[in-house]
Amino acid sequence: MTLLALLLSLAGFTALALAMDRHHHTATGARPAKRRKRLLQLAGILALTLAFVVAIAAWGWAYGPIYWLGLLTAGAAPALLALTYAPPRRKP
Amino acid sequence: MKQGFTKQGFRQSQAGLHTWSGLLVGWVLYLIFLNGAVSYWREEITRWAQPEIGATRNLETVTRGAIAHLQATAPKAASWQIMLPDERASGATTTYREKGKKPVLRGDDPTATLIGPDGKPTVARDTEGGDVFYRLHFDLRYMPVIWGRWVVGFCSMFMLVAIVSGVITHKKIFADFFTFRPGKGQRSWLDGHNALAVLALPFHAMITYTGLVTLMVIYVPFGVTANYPTLKAYYAESAPRLKPVKPTGQPAPLTDIGPVLATAARLWDGGQPGIIRIDNPGDKAARIVLTRRASDKLVDGRWEIVFDGVTGKVRSSVAPTSAGMITRGGMIGLHAGRFAPMTLRWLFFLSGVAGTAMVATGLVLWTAKRRAKLGTRFHLGFWVVERLNVGAVAGLPLAMTGFLWANRLLPTGMAHRADWEVHTMFLAWGATLLHAFVRPPNKAWIEQLSLTGVALLLLPVFDQAATPRGLIDSLKAGDGALVGMELGLLVLGASFLAIAWRTARSQAKRRAKDAALVQLAQARG
Amino acid sequence: MKTADVANAKGRKGWDVTARIVLTIPGAYAVTAACTMLLARTIPASRLDATLWATIAAFGIYAALVVWVFAASSALRAGLVLLAIGAIAGLGAMWAA
Question: Whole-model pTM?
Fold first, then answer.
């Protein structure tokens, strides 16, 4: 459950970051279309919400939110590092 | 110029507030954050600091041994007390109080005896272990405790202000969230500071607010004075004490502790006692008071069961029930994280490290900004702050490593040994400050960071060679806490060396760039 | 932003910042004390719970007051408003006793 919530958090933040012009450009070499941007944002929020659901299911209402917030941090950190250090891709 | 309540003006006013409050309390906050983060491993550090004792496997063995020891050494005492280890700690401590004497509240109790995992009295080196960092986190040191707490409270309050004003200042908080541009000087420090702050923002806000709540009646006694005639009256209502019972003078054997522990576990949903107090042992009016250990519940507060010491029947029990006490206890519990199982403990610890790094980058950012502005001009304030930054940010971890080395190297029979471990830490800190003032800052950074790294890396080597509980021994014994400590020291040491190496590399790059510019200027004549 | 920063730094004289710091450290603290007393006496709960909740809220109140002191268009204005809040809360607390 910890791993699942962590992966959802990582996926969520990666999607949210890719919805930003600059990071999308770094990752794919192009700015995202409006539709794709919306889609990525939606996917990101959905993944983070799912992580919350998983946390509540696993640890209950008293501890679930604490785990969720902790795992949000733990998921966002590798997303940030990947965006910083992964080599940028240029459009072919 | 009229500066109305515009969004822009508001943000700028907060930028000033953020810088001002940040620098005012930055160094103390760094100490608080670093020692707070380390304190999530308080029990493990204490275990590491006393390699004489192994892990405790069975609480009942220890409890029975402790009672047997007290029965043999202090049968006529007015009261016995047994401090039991929680699941991450080891070794119980027994103390007793003679009839007509007051209990020792602070400092060393001369009646204290350490009970080992096998239930027999044992001796371990005199050390504060992990408690030293825990205490430093909110009491500071070498000053009356109340002063330390006020300084810490003041700084924490301005941490809260810095969090709020920092969030307001930050225009694109979630856009910059994912942005880190390394190798760009001031820009990188700002990016790093922002990322560390926002990444663990829920933790930073939670830990600062709940930290203030732990000592709130000291800081804001006015709620209490509004409703109670005295502070005592408030404590009598919030934490009522058990009335003492008089001994009858009729001897009676103490009930078996086994069923008492079993009943407590049943009433507390599997919870265990952290403190067992036995009043009037050996008397017909004997009473056993079990206080629940902090590690198996979130809400901090008084959970107590009182047993008849002769019949073993439950007499009364208390638990936090009022909504206010649960709110307060929940916040304190969340802050200290005593309840946290390993996964959550790691998340708390790493968030604490992020907080420490956030304060450190904030301090460095302050100097980076001003260095860019000043150029080569001399400015006394800047000169001092730049050096204090080295002595605080790089010096404190080195001093704390010094404590660990003192724990290993000071002779075990030495008088006031535990105090000297702490003195060593502060002498080392003084030395790092001095070093920071006599060396050029860029050299001082690298030297202190790499020395910390080497000193940390050598600790596990020393442990393997000179103590019975090195990494390999603990792996064989399946002693997770000590394996974790040794590996943790190795990882920390490697991290410090990596930071030192990166600092050296970026300095070399900057120098090369400067040299190239000079050459270019010369070539052009 | 840069030009605004410069203008701001020049517009804000030393005494203005000093005044705000004084307003923050003893001033806002005193107002927080008054607000905490008022809350402790008026929150509809048992005496103990009301006391605890009011005390917990105090840190939020203080932080908000400090932010406001630095955001106000002038130190004088900040001082007057602080005085007004403090007076109202203090009188309220006395009335609620």
Answer: 0.92
